[in-house]
Each structure stands twice: as C-alpha cells, then as structure tokens.
C-alpha cells in the first residue's frame, strides 16, 4: 500500500478516536448548576446531532453512496434550521432595547408648539377648525408665486 494512503488512513483513525473520546466526555457534562442551562443544553444537543449526522454523511461517501440522495441530507438540513433558530433566540437576549419613554420625550420636545394662544388662534379658522393647507404653484414663466386654495 502507498505510504501516503497509509498515513492518511492512520490520521483518519486517530481523528475518529479523538472524536469518539470527545463525544463520550460530552455525555458526562452536567448543565443543572448553570443559570443558562437550557440554552447550553440545546447548543450541546445540536452540536452532538450535527456531529453524528455529519459522520454518517462521511461514512456514506466512503461507501460510494451519494449522500445528497439519502435521507441524511434532509436530517442535516433540519439540524441546520434548528441551529439557526437557536442562534436567533440566543441573539434576542443581547439585542438593544428601545427606551420608549425617552423616545416619546424626544419626539414630543422636537415638535413645534405655539408659544402663546394667539399663535394657536392664528392657525385656526373663525369657526374653530384647523386651517386647510394651501398649495403654492410655481409657474416657470413667472418669478412670483401665490397660494392657491385646494378647492379650486
């Protein structure tokens, strides 16, 4: 057998044994004493599921089976979806919160307010209703402009 092939097989065997040890150690992790126990357990379970399914994917490749046509492909896609959902839930805790009170004060104080009642009365018609907005039509031929009532 070629030395490179033999070396590659030995490296693969070493890595598989290391992975086997890591998976066995991960089974003994206790999440009960941690305040983020549920989030860590979900991440841990997703990690293990993805690892084992990926190993099966690699096994199928070594056997000459196309994993894209095998149900393992759908399982990997499903696990990836759950990983994405877990990330969204985790990131939700750390996104910035809007201080609604401060926002309301900011908007309230940036809006124009009449200084006195006379200004407010000037904005209203004689019957107490608000004045209609007027349009200003600019004529290209004339230099001056005049307000036009919307009704016309």
UniProtKB/TrEMBL annotation:
GO terms for cellular component: cytoplasm; exosome (RNase complex); nucleolus. Pfam families: Sas10_Utp3. Residues 139-152 have a biased composition (Acidic residues). One of its GO terms (biological process) is maturation of 5.8S rRNA. Belongs to the C1D family. GO terms for molecular function: DNA binding; RNA binding. It is found in: Cytoplasm; Nucleus, Nucleolus; Nucleus. Residues 117-152 are annotated as: Disordered. The lineage of its organism: Eukaryota, Metazoa, Ecdysozoa, Arthropoda, Hexapoda. Plays a role in the recruitment of the exosome to pre-rRNA to mediate the 3'-5' end processing of the 5.8S rRNA. Keywords: Cytoplasm, DNA-binding, Nucleus, RNA-binding, rRNA processing. Monomer and homodimer. Residues 122-135 have a biased composition (Polar residues). This is Nuclear nucleic acid-binding protein C1D. InterPro entries: Exosome-assoc_fac/DNA_repair, Sas10/Utp3/C1D.
């Amino acid at each position: 057998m070629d030395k490179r092939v033999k070396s590659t097989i030995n490296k693969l065997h070493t890595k598989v044994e290391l992975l086997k040890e890591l998976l066995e150690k991960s089974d003994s992790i206790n999440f009960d004493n941690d305040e983020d126990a549920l989030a860590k357990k979900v991440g841990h379970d997703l990690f293990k599921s993805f690892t084992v399914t990926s190993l099966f994917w690699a096994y199928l490749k070594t056997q000459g089976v196309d994993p894209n046509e095998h149900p393992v492909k759908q399982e990997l896609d499903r696990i990836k979806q759950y990983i994405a959902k877990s990330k969204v839930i985790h990131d939700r805790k750390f996104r910035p919160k809007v201080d609604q009170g401060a926002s309301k004060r900011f908007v309230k104080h940036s809006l124009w307010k009449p200084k006195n009642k006379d200004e407010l009365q000037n904005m209203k018609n004689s019957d107490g209703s608000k004045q209609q907005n007027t349009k200003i039509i600019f004529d290209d031929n004339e230099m001056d402009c005049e307000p036009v009532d919307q009704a016309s």
